[in-house]
Specification:
This protein is an alpha+beta fold. It is built from 21 helices and 28 strands. The chain has a five-stranded mixed β-sheet with strand order 7-6-10-17-18, with helices on one face. It has a five-stranded antiparallel β-sheet with strand order 12-11-22-21-20, sandwiched between helices. A three-stranded antiparallel β-sheet has the order 3-4-5, with no helix packed on it. A hairpin with an 8-residue loop joins strand 3 and strand 4. Helix 3 packs across helix 10, helix 15 crosses helix 18 and helix 15 packs antiparallel against helix 20. The longest helix has 25 residues. The N terminus and C terminus are likely disordered.
Length: about 900
């Protein structure tokens, strides 16, 4: 019998049979060196004859049917003898024509197994990917060339314009002095390495792991992070630009690798130190050392070097002189750098221990930034970067023409008002405290939200910190109107369920504990410890009574007060803006500009325009940059805003801000004083202009806040003094030539209702010593130094209802009016008595008006009217 098969070297190949024995034939073999012959074996069931395979004839010649001894194959043996000896299942189909039979098909994968690639597919994919990456790498490496240095040294200026198109300022002068690495102290070098790239000398030019980690952290919302080495940062600074594009990153990657092969690590570090930006317009570590410490780079010690290194992470924000509110973050970064130096062995633990933060000096600037120009340019840059219009690095590259909303006439008027009312009255040689005086101001058009003027300080070259944008002084009582607005906005009620209006009575006793607050005892002190007894909210606002407003904050809910302030324009992240009763007294540290925006919302009947100081930006003279859309939102109801305005008009007419009347315009406003008199505020507005002024005290050397007692030769500076006077002069000048308009107010129901005099409180509180009913007052100071009828602890007393002898007492009786619990009673239900020479009444009346007493003006006596809440009355 002859069968045919195709011969495959080293394989077991089924061969076709003659169809009579139902057997399969397998041939094993390999090619010989001489030709296509080999040993073969046929198998029927379990055994079979052997023969020789003639490759040329492609046939098999049968031999004896008897089993023959197996001859050793020439260099061949079956890989799986067991498989060779195993019988084939009967009925296995053969290939048509007696040729090679088809290989049995593998069973198809079903279910979830179909989704899993085979190992062959996986291996092929990995090999392909590796090949592509290698190819892309060599392609990029060959195509990307090291370019010439960029034109930063000759970069364009940015031009800043007033609203009318006249030039305000021009920047762009690059402050750089390149030095060799040997001219930079080793401490400063190590500090930079500890801050930016601790393994710089041992690592490659790029760090793929860091790049992947940074990309992952950015993609997963952990913040935008850089995975660049110092080499990559140097390439970006010196050869490329600051744009955040994939193309730039790819170029940076390949140039860094090439540069690492052509320049030494020391050369790269030197280039990085000379091209990095440190803030204060200082490019390079030499310029930075001079700008912050007045030293050369070679003189920098570990502490100063660590601070400059920390600046590389956030040059503008970490300048603790320009942004004192960010000092904690800057110090934390400084500590991180020093700890890194210790970890790498560049600084001893003993030298690190007890090291104090090296406060930088006040900045100096070129005369092109003198006066208000530097403050304005700084504020504009902050505005552009904060609102993500242009990032800081791109802005530094220059070429922008920026038209502001500032009006030159108003800007000049603001400077003149501050000079006239404050700066001209300082005697820095004779009075040390006068060296602490600083001022800040901001003015906003309430109908548009546009900033029309800001006052940053006496001179940017002399005082670097912007008084209009800094956020580290307490706003004091200028916050109280937000509490009143919140009460009306939320329809709040007193502790006994009465709807709060400006005519609601509260107990103004000094250090009166608030009621209804579960967060612990809180009993704030009034200005100068004055007690006022039972007074309306309107009167409490006139006199800025702390005890009343703390209780009001509890009645409204401190959390609601906070939300109202944010809605009006106070940033939600303002330091010390906490939802507690103390929020009413203004411990938060909003900036002057923030407060101006909030007061502008009140002036605009509760509608808030997001403030802006930019009207147009072009790049290279043609391309206009898109600005954010200005949003107008309803912050509070018109009734809430307008009712607050009506109360603040009373503050100007009768309260602590009478100096603002000099503006000769209908005006509303509120005074404020920071703790320990470190700052005095006045925030006010007309229907056309909202302006906030603050006079602050700061040590020019240490930057510490300082009290202003004795400044300008005055016992104290409060909101009703210099700030209100500046406001009045500026407002009058700024609005000169325009028609004065009245406030168009829509008040809360009941806001104008005066309580009937027959409903007087049953127990008005007093704190002066009394024997027989004499009420005592001494005319102590309120927020403007006036109490107008309040009582002070330990005041002059009467023993039998007689006249006091202090010459400034108001509302005392001479006819023996007796009291049962410290209040003055009347026999005629509210007769008004007028004093002529000391404030003595003749009929036991409820209200006494002095003509030459210490308080001047009208004072509220013992009798008041209206329903009395137990939560508002001291029992």
């Amino acid at each position: 019998m002859v069968t045919h098969a195709t011969h495959f070297p080293g394989k077991c190949v089924p061969m076709g049979g003659n169809g009579t024995h139902g057997a399969r034939v397998f041939v094993w073999g390999r090619r010989s060196a001489q030709g296509r012959t080999g040993t073969y074996r046929t198998a029927w069931d379990h055994a079979g004859p052997y023969g020789t395979y003639d490759a040329k004839q492609e046939s098999v010649h049968e031999m004896s049917d008897q089993p023959q001894p197996q001859q050793p194959a020439q260099g061949w043996a079956p890989r799986e003898p067991e498989a060779a000896a195993a019988p084939e299942a009967p009925g296995t189909p053969e290939a048509p024509g007696g040729g090679k039979p088809k290989k049995p098909k593998r069973p198809k994968r079903t279910g979830w197994r179909r989704a899993i690639p085979t190992w062959r597919m996986t291996l092929a994919g990995v090999v392909t990917l590796v090949a592509l990456l290698i190819g892309a790498f060599y392609l990029g490496y060959s195509m990307v060339k090291i370019p010439p240095a960029n034109a930063l040294a000759t970069k364009q200026s940015n031009v800043y314009l007033y609203a009318d198109g006249s030039q305000l300022a021009r920047d762009g002068e690059v402050n750089r002095e390149s030095v060799g690495l040997a001219q930079v102290s080793s401490d400063a070098q190590h500090a930079v390495l500890a801050a930016e790239d601790r393994d710089f000398y041992s690592e490659s030019a790029v760090d793929p792991k860091a790049m992947v980690r940074a990309a992952w952290n950015t993609a997963t919302g952990k913040g935008t992070q850089s995975g660049s080495t110092i080499t990559q940062q140097y390439v970006k600074n010196y050869y490329l630009g600051q744009e955040q594009t994939v193309t730039r990153k790819v170029k940076e990657f390949f140039i860094s690798i090439k540069l690492d092969r052509t320049e030494s690590k020391s050369e790269i570090l030197e280039g990085y130190l000379n091209t990095s930006y440190f803030g204060r317009n200082a490019y390079g570590i030499q310029a930075a050392a001079q700008a912050y410490y007045g030293k050369d780079a070679t003189e920098l010690d570990a502490g100063r070097g660590a601070y400059l290194a920390a600046l590389l992470n956030a040059p503008s924000e970490y300048d603790v002189v320009a942004h004192p509110e960010n000092k904690a973050a800057a110090v934390a970064r400084w500590n991180y750098v020093l700890d890194g130096m210790v970890k790498k062995g560049w600084l001893t633990e003993s030298a690190r221990t007890g090291m104090k933060f090296p406060m930088p000096k006040e900045a100096t600037a070129s005369t092109s930034m003198s006066g208000q120009r530097g403050y304005i340019v700084g504020a504009i840059k902050d505005y552009l970067t904060t609102n993500k219009i242009i990032d800081a690095d791109t802005l530094e590259a220059g070429g922008y023409r920026i038209t502001t909303t500032l009006q030159k006439s108003k800007q000049d008027a603001f400077v003149k008002a501050v000079n006239d009312k404050v700066m001209s009255k300082l005697d820095k040689k004779s009075r040390k405290v006068d060296n602490y005086v600083r001022a800040g101001g901001a003015s906003v058009d309430p109908k548009t939200g546009r900033i029309v003027a800001i006052y940053g300080g006496i001179d940017y070259v002399k005082q670097y910190t912007n008084g209009a944008t800094r956020g580290d002084f307490q706003v004091g009582s200028t916050f109280k109107p937000f509490v009143l607005t919140s009460a009306i906005q939320n329809g709040s009620q007193t502790q006994d369920g009465q709807t709060i209006t400006p005519n609601t009575y509260y107990d103004g006793t000094n250090k009166r504990p608030v009621e209804g607050w579960s967060g612990g005892s809180y009993a704030p002190e009034n200005e100068d410890g004055v007690s006022y007894g039972d007074i309306t909210l309107r009167t409490a606002t006139d006199k800025s009574v702390n005890s009343v407003y703390a209780q009001l904050a509890v009645d409204v809910g401190p959390d609601k007060v906070k939300q109202t302030a944010i809605a009006l324009g106070i940033p939600s992240d303002t330091p010390d803006l906490t939802a507690t009763p103390s929020i009413a007294l203004g411990p938060s540290t909003a900036s002057v500009l923030d407060m101006a925006e909030a007061y502008a919302t009140l002036a605009n009947h509760g509608q808030r325009h997001t403030y802006t100081m930019i009207s147009k930006i072009t790049k290279d003279g043609t391309d206009e940059i898109k600005l954010p859309d200005q949003k107008t939102t309803r912050a509070v109801s018109r009734e809430a805003a307008d009712t607050t305005t009506s109360v603040l008009q009373s503050v100007v007419d009768n309260g602590t801000a009478t100096a603002a009347q000099a503006a000769d315009r209908p005006a509303a406003g509120k005074t404020g004083t920071a703790e320990e008199d470190t700052a005095a505020w006045f925030a006010g507005y007309t229907p056309d202009l909202a302006t906030v002024v603050s006079v602050m005290g700061q040590d020019p050397t240490t930057a510490a806040h300082k009290s202003l007692y004795g400044a300008m030769g005055l016992a104290r500076i409060n909101g009703g003094g210099a700030p209100a006077e500046i406001w009045a002069q500026y407002t009058k000048s700024a609005l000169k030539g325009t028609e004065a308009s009245d406030f168009d107010l829509e008040l809360q129901d009941g806001a104008e209702t005066v309580a009937p005099p027959s409903l007087q409180p049953s127990q008005p509180a007093t704190t002066g010593d009394q024997d027989n009913g004499g009420t005592t007052t001494t005319g102590g100071q309120g927020d403007q130094g006036q109490t107008q009828g309040g009582t002070t602890d330990g005041g002059t007393t009467t023993t039998d209802g007689g006249t006091t002898t202090t010459g400034g007492t108001t509302g005392t009786t001479t006819t023996g009016g007796t009291t049962t619990d410290g209040g003055t009673t009347t026999t005629d239900g509210g007769t008004t008595g007028t004093t002529t020479d000391g404030g003595t009444t003749t009929t036991g009346g409820t209200t006494g008006t002095t003509t030459d007493g210490t308080t001047g003006g009208t004072t509220t006596g013992g009798t008041t009217a209206g329903p009395q809440s137990t939560a508002r009355k001291k029992e």
